[in-house]
Design goal:
Length: 258
């Protein structure tokens, strides 16, 4: 693994069963073995949470045609040598070589104008269920920030997937929270290729905005269009755009952009 950030300090460590701190490391996968560990983590999380229909599911691996073109960020718990969190990253150059972005299978990105040419796509985010106390997510974001700084990238695009296993209650809650801000002040808007009819759901049922999507919004990202329906993962995918110029000052300082 190509190391980006190591942490054994209290900000990023997690208690193990014997209450000793774990040593966490975030970096880029550098071998087929590391990539397979990432793909197996993705399968286990997506299968359990979305009951996703994955092409290589019989091998208990989540793998697709974009994986070879991406950088794969991972957090490893060195105490157990286990991969516990991941994102995959598709740069503008690699997107051209791959024939486009994964997101273009769900959205028409032409509404982004020239910004589309400079997008870094983040996707396939997941964290092992035993490590979801915020520390691993912050390490992943620190690794992603390092990639953005190294490549001098300014615009990030990705999807925030909301499970539909609750018949769309959570998706309706998210839509209710974000719909009035879409396109505000002439902001760019993308169009879903297969729109999920979130406006037809009963928006009065109680629900909560997922923590990861809340985190994106706090960073300064915005939902830039209606959600697309992903039948394989049984999710409503909300398009998210983050321009570093719009990142909150607190996070810019924390991740070293200022």
């Amino acid at each position: 693994m190509l190391e980006l950030v190591r942490s054994s300090a209290s900000l990023f460590t997690l208690p193990s069963r014997d209450e000793k701190p774990s040593d966490l490391l975030v970096g880029l996968a550098q071998s087929d073995v590391e990539l397979e560990a990432i793909q197996r983590l993705r399968y286990s999380v997506f299968d359990a949470e979305y009951a996703a229909q994955m092409a290589s599911g019989d091998q208990e691996i989540d793998r697709d045609a974009f994986d070879p073109w991406c950088e794969h960020l991972m957090v490893k718990d060195l105490a157990s040598n286990q991969v516990i969190g991941t994102y995959r990253v598709l740069t503008p150059l690699q997107a051209k070589r791959a024939g486009g972005y994964y997101s273009e299978s769900e959205f028409d990105l032409s509404g982004l104008g020239q910004t589309k040419d400079s997008l870094v796509e983040f996707g396939r985010a997941c964290i092992h269920q035993d490590y979801r106390n915020g520390a691993v997510l912050m390490m992943l974001w620190s690794g992603l920030a390092a990639i953005l700084k190294q490549g001098h990238y300014q615009n990030v695009f990705g999807c925030a997937s909301v499970s539909l296993r609750d018949d769309g209650v959570t998706a309706a809650t998210v839509w209710r929270e974000v719909r009035d801000d879409i396109g505000l002040n002439n902001a760019s808007v993308v169009e879903p290729l297969h729109r999920y009819p979130v406006d037809q759901l009963d928006s009065h049922l109680p629900g909560q905005v997922p923590a990861l999507l809340k985190g994106y919004l706090k960073l300064g990202a915005r939902v830039c269009g209606e959600p697309a329906w992903d039948p394989d993962f049984n999710t409503a995918d909300f398009p998210m755009l983050l321009s570093l110029a719009n990142m909150g000052k607190r996070y810019r300082r924390h991740f070293g952009f200022d």
